[in-house]
């Protein structure tokens, strides 16, 4: 069986958006090995259709970034193909070309995308295979018991107002608030103002267990939102300054709430400087409630 090494550094959302690539190789008879940030190792091995995950940011794999390292050459001999989401001109790309004699597909992430990111990630291998996994799904047995609200993301500029999430929580019955590492500064606010259960920094595997009992998940453009979307749980994703056309979660049960204004989408620097936040402030609690009401009727 052929072996592919896929190099995909990035956040949780970046990796989940790459799951269709992993699954496409797997469905076409490859053993799939992935290099990425070590914090995601267990989650990707358990749910990402991969055989093994290598933590490229650990000391053990520093040889990827060292010149003339014989360990890298020996390591790469195990694979038949490398699919690297990096530029061949950066140190990682240079080292790969110097130490791997078989085929390498370089596919760096570009800023100006005009298609959905998951379609872009699949582009080079659509000519390789007839079976392409375009939408990834983790199969779970869902027994909806409560709503989950995740009011944060890795970029505060993308977040709907926390007071809106708080008011929304009061209009729903049986709500749990989920806070990850990026929301450490928000814990005090939620403990002071929210009377229900607060789930603080659960592991990714635990989040899958939470999803099994979730009626509807509501959150911003975040990795956790992408995680819920692939479980098949009803997912409401609130998008403001980023483009849902490019970065939105895909799934059969996903609803994106987005009100396009003249200045969106925008670059990261503009997000940080923006004070009006029209793209987010134009989204109301009633927009979410209205959608939920339609789904129940």
Structural commentary:
It is a single chain. The chain is an alpha/beta fold and 297 residues long. It has 2 domains: 3-125, NAD(P)-binding Rossmann-like Domain (Rossmann fold); 146-296, Rossmann fold (3-Layer(aba) Sandwich). It is 35% helix and 19% strand. A 6-stranded parallel sheet has the order 8-7-6-9-10-11, with helices on both faces. The protein has a 5-stranded parallel sheet with strand order 3-2-1-4-5, with helices on both faces. Helix 1 (12-27) packs parallel to helix 9 and helix 3 (70-76) crosses helix 4 (91-99).
Indicate the CATH class of the largest domain: Alpha Beta
CATH superfamily of the largest domain: Glycogen Phosphorylase B
- What's the total helix number? 13
Main sheet attributes: strand count, strand direction, barrel closure: 6 strands, parallel
Q: Measured on Cα atoms, how large is the radius of gyration? A: 20 Å
CATH architecture of the largest domain: 3-Layer(aba) Sandwich
- What overall form do the CA principal axes indicate? globular
Helical fraction: 25-40%
Strand order of the largest sheet: 8-7-6-9-10-11
Low-confidence stretches: none
Number of beta strands: 11
**CATH level-3 fold name of the largest domain:** Rossmann fold
Mean pLDDT figure: 93
Topology, element by element:
Layout: E1 3-7, H1 12-27, E2 31-36, H2 41-47, E3 52-55, H3 70-76, E4 81-84, H4 91-99, E5 103-106, H5 117-122, E6 146-150, H6 162-171, E7 175-179, H7 187-193, E8 197-200, H8 204-211, E9 214-220, H9 223-229, E10 234-239, H10 244-247, E11 254-258, H11 268-273, H12 278-281, H13 285-296
Parallel strand pairs: 1-2, 1-4, 2-3, 4-5, 6-7, 6-9, 7-8, 9-10, 10-11
